[in-house]
């Protein structure tokens, strides 16, 4: 029984999303044995359109067993094929805008331009997306260039670490196969840092991203004017409503900070989305786990898809050391409350930033996540460089590698491969200078909290 039949070359003249939508419409949980998806090719085609076709089949989990190809075409390279995506291609700058805590508008958090960014205080997100800075980056991706602005991703991919570019291809998989990159770009995803207000002073953070850090730094040194750091200082409660109401194509919004759950002004923006009938917009929060968002849930319950990533780098007294400002028991109670949310509606996961402070505690952290039935992801601290695990002296790494390889968690064992590299930051003096200075401020002792790591870093 033929459930779908198409001459594949017709897609060259149809909207870019036509192939994805056609295949999505015939996706089934189960196919009958005699079901057939017939694709004909009697006119010239190129490799790109076939790669595009099979990638969508894989994405939608449509078995190739049911696909029957009938072709007598000339296969080659078609000039300016809209289905051609170079190996270096990244979808993010075609659909996404990130607003940093100081108001800088970027394609994503990893991009590092050599020029000044547009600022949300002085322009609109849509104008920034059409700016020459964004246009140049998109042009490079279309033409197979590896942009210098994206070195953070290229460096990670070179050593086998999953980059944001690669993660975004999965996160924005629908957009990847439905966005015509030759048309005027539209904002489908927003990565919003809702100011730098935060209740923690995380060791791997700074006063540029946390108001608690800022308040502490003011006691010991000169600091920048707060208006240079936080664009939300002068923003009114309707700031984001005025920005977002014209984005008809918005599909994802990610809230970060600072600590986004300390902010309530953005709830008006979410309410506006609901009033516009956009309850299918995916809402995501990166949160430190110190706040259970009862007020936010009153609004979030109306959306179809909500997720929380809980940034938990350690447990117990080591959590309190690394993310100073709250007792672990309070966070533990909040984690248990998060775990009781309706998991059919709310997706929740742990995210641990691996540093030389917590690398010997990863198994315990993952055990905590597993006990709460949370998925777990690992990232790596590369800035400040003295907190990177690459700042552990190479000759002193074997004990750590043995520990990692003995873990029951595959993700933990994978960390050992990074430590086996010859990369060494050689910033031991900078590490101890920072540790001792902040320990003195906060009446803490690194050697008391991490005796083994203190010994390793002192050898």
Determine the fraction of residues in helical runs and give it as a percent range: 25-40%
| Structural Rg | 24 Å
Shape: globular
Strand order of the largest sheet: 7-6-8-10-11-12-14-15
* Overall average residue pLDDT: 92
Task: Summarize the topology.
Layout: E1 2-7, H1 18-25, E2 36-41, E3 45-46, H2 47-60, E4 67-71, E5 75-76, H3 92-95, E6 96-99, E7 105-106, H4 125-129, H5 132-142, H6 151-158, H7 164-171, H8 173-178, E8 189-193, E9 201-202, H9 211-218, H10 226-229, H11 239-244, E10 252-256, H12 266-275, E11 282-287, H13 294-300, E12 306-311, H14 316-322, E13 323-324, H15 328-339, E14 346-354, H16 362-371, E15 375-380, H17 398-405, H18 410-419, H19 428-442, H20 446-449, H21 451-458
Parallel strand pairs: 1-2, 2-4, 3-5, 6-8, 8-10, 10-11, 11-12, 12-14, 14-15
Antiparallel strand pairs: 6-7, 9-13
Report on this model:
With 459 residues, the protein is of the alpha/beta class. It contains 21 helices and 15 strands. It has helices spanning 18-25, 47-60, 92-95, 125-129, 132-142, 151-158, 164-171, 173-178, 211-218, 226-229, 239-244, 266-275, 294-300, 316-322, 328-339, 362-371, 398-405, 410-419, 428-442, 446-449, 451-458, and strands at residues 2-7, 36-41, 45-46, 67-71, 75-76, 96-99, 105-106, 189-193, 201-202, 252-256, 282-287, 306-311, 323-324, 346-354, 375-380. A hairpin with a 5-residue loop joins strand 6 and strand 7 (105-106). Helix 17 runs antiparallel to helix 18 (410-419). The radius of gyration is 24 Å and the shape is globular. The termini are far apart. The mean pLDDT is 92.
């Amino acid at each position: 029984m033929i459930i779908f039949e198409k001459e594949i070359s017709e897609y060259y003249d149809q909207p870019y999303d036509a192939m994805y939508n056609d295949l999505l419409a015939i996706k089934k949980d189960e196919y009958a044995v005699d079901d057939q998806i017939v694709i004909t090719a009697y006119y010239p085609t190129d490799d790109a359109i076939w790669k595009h076709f099979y990638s969508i089949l894989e994405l939608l989990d449509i078995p190739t067993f049911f696909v029957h190809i009938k072709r007598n075409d000339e296969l080659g390279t078609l000039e300016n094929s809209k289905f051609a995506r170079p190996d270096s291609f990244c979808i993010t700058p075609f659909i996404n805008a990130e607003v940093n805590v100081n108001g800088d508008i970027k394609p994503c958090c990893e991009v590092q331009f050599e020029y000044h960014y547009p600022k949300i205080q002085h322009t609109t997100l849509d104008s920034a997306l059409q700016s020459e800075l964004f246009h140049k980056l998109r042009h490079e991706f279309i033409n197979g260039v590896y942009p210098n602005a994206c070195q953070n991703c290229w460096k990670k991919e070179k050593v086998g670490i999953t980059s944001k570019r690669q993660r975004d291809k999965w996160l924005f998989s629908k957009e990847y196969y439905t966005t015509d990159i030759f048309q005027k770009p539209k904002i489908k995803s927003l990565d919003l840092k809702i100011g730098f207000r935060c209740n923690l002073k995380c060791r791997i953070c700074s006063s540029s991203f946390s108001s608690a850090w800022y308040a502490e730094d003011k006691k010991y040194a000169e600091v920048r004017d707060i208006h240079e750091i936080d664009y939300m200082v002068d923003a009114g409660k309707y700031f984001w409503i005025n920005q977002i109401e014209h984005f008809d194509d918005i599909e994802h919004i990610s809230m970060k900070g600072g600590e986004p759950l300390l902010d309530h002004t953005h709830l008006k923006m979410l309410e506006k989305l609901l009033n516009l009938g956009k309850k299918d917009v995916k809402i995501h929060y990166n949160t430190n786990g110190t706040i259970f968002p009862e007020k936010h849930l009153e609004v979030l319950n109306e959306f179809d898809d909500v997720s929380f990533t809980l940034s938990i780098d350690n447990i117990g007294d080591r959590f309190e050391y690394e993310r100073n400002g709250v007792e672990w028991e309070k966070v533990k109670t909040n984690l248990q409350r998060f775990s009781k949310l309706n998991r059919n509606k709310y997706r929740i996961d742990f995210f641990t930033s691996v540093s030389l402070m917590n690398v010997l505690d990863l198994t315990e952290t993952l055990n905590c996540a597993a006990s709460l039935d949370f998925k777990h992801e690992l990232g790596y601290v590369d800035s400040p460089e003295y907190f990177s695990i690459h700042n552990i002296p190479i000759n002193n790494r074997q004990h750590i590698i043995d520990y990692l390889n003995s873990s029951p968690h595959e993700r933990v064992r994978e960390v050992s491969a990074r430590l086996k590299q010859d990369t060494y930051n050689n910033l031991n003096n900078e590490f101890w200078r920072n540790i001792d200075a902040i320990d003195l401020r906060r009446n803490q002792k690194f050697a008391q909290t991490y005796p083994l790591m203190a010994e390793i870093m002192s050898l």
